[in-house]
Write a structure and sequence with these properties.
Layout (H helix, E strand, L loop, with lengths): L13 E4 L4 E3 L3 H12 L5 E3 L7 H5 L31 H14 L8 E9 L4 E8 L8 E6 L2 E3 L6 E2 L13 E4 L14 E4 L3 H11 L6 E3 L6 E3 L1 E2 L2 E2 H9 L4 H16 L14 H8 L4 E3 L2 H6 L4 E3 L2 E4 L3 E4 L4 E3 L2 E4 L3 E2 L2 H4 E2 L9
Parallel strand pairs: 1-6, 2-3, 2-7, 4-22, 9-20, 10-11, 10-20, 11-16, 12-15
Antiparallel strand pairs: 4-5, 5-6, 8-21, 13-14, 17-18, 18-19
Protein name: Flavin-containing monooxygenase
Cofactor: FAD
GO molecular function, one term: indole-3-pyruvate monooxygenase activity
């Protein structure tokens, strides 16, 4: 007989026992874990807040998006990409691949199940995962899943981050985050400011340029920009190869030298490099370098204007920290994401059994 802490009421919601792990998230990581368990005959349940697998790719990415790394580095276990796929598959191709992966391994997530909390109950030594259905005939119904193992596979990009900037609420133009951006077609002929100079910011600016818009990109901090390929080989692949034989600091120096040879000195255009190398920065702070796919050329030609940080907004203008004012129609925040796991996963310093 189970005995639950926190005054658990077994009649407050439907209770489901899962004899294997509960996996939260049906993106690439969640699907890969589920496939591995399926191959070993281990039962599991996959909970997904959205109504599809890979919801981030399906619902929150721009149309021109392609994989930044060659397909062999992005394929999931036991299921290579189709041979006719290009080196860098498109958004649609990657979504098709993930849906085929779920079908091949007979992975059937429970969609529209939003995890409200997940807590390890020390009394019964089980995880208690509470969900609520957010769509369909079962909308509002609550379920509690009981299991010995919990797999968190929700990724790092759950919640878009928009910085608080003075006057933003007074701005009368369009304001959106990069996760809601689809194509530059709707911005044709408009004056657009893109806040952020990471991979998303660079690609959004490039896409805007390709739709006859001259965007301004706000560069608030230093950033590493590397060519996507060096001498026909993926920069990532080259880095991984060198790391087999050379220390990380030396690989960083080689990458930066090659980037300087190919892209030139970008500091004169306003892109300053961090003092720490790109691989070390990724390892220590989780900051991913930008892999250039054409934006640097647009920066050189001034089709993408680099501007300093924003001081404040007004109804139709943005004032920069250097005092310059720019009249704009729209602002796109390419300012990253945060994980939502801390909001629902309750973790204390407890003795959780390890297997």
């Amino acid at each position: 007989m189970f005995s639950f802490s926190d005054n658990y009421d077994c009649f407050s919601r439907r209770c489901v026992w899962v004899s294997g792990p509960v996996i939260v998230g049906a993106g690439p990581s969640g699907l890969a874990v589920a496939a591995g368990l399926k191959e070993q005959g281990v039962p599991f349940v996959v909970l997904e807040k959205a109504d599809c697998v890979a919801s981030l790719w399906q619902n929150r990415t721009y149309d021109r998006l392609k994989l930044h790394l060659p397909k062999q580095f992005c394929q999931l276990p036991e299921f290579p990409f189709p041979e006719n796929y290009p080196k860098y598959p498109t958004k649609k191709q990657f979504i098709d691949y993930l849906e085929s992966y779920a079908k091949k391994f007979d992975i059937n997530p429970l969609f529209n199940e939003c995890v409200e909390s997940a807590k390890y109950d020390e009394t019964c030594r089980l995880w208690r995962v509470k969900t609520v259905s957010i769509s369909g005939d079962a909308a509002g119904s609550e379920v509690e899943y009981l299991c010995q193992w919990l797999v968190v596979a929700t990724g790092e990009n759950s919640e878009p981050v928009v910085p608080e900037i003075e006057g933003l609420s007074e701005f009368k133009g369009e304001v959106l985050h990069a996760c809601d951006y689809r194509s530059g077609e709707t911005f044709r002929g408009k004056k657009v400011v893109v806040v952020g100079c990471g991979n998303s910011g660079m690609e959004v600016c490039l896409d805007l340029c390709n739709h006859d818009t001259k965007p301004s990109m706000v560069v608030r901090s230093s950033v590493h920009v590397l060519p996507r390929e060096i001498l026909g080989k993926s920069t990532f692949e080259l880095a991984m190869l060198m790391l087999k034989w050379l220390p990380l600091w030396l690989v960083d120096k080689i990458l930066l030298f090659l980037a300087w040879m190919i892209l030139g000195n970008m500091e004169k255009f306003g892109l300053k490099r961090p003092s720490v190398g790109p691989l070390e920065l990724k390892n220590t702070q989780g900051k991913t370098p930008v892999l250039d796919i054409g934006a640097i050329e647009k920066i050189r030609s001034r089709e993408i204007q680099l501007v300093s940080g924003i001081n404040k907004f007004s109804s139709s203008m943005v004032e920069l920290v250097n005092g310059k004012k720019i009249e704009i129609d729209s602002v796109i925040f390419a300012t990253g994401y945060r994980s939502n796991v801390p909001y629902w996963l309750e973790v204390r310093k407890i003795s959780v059994p390890q297997y």
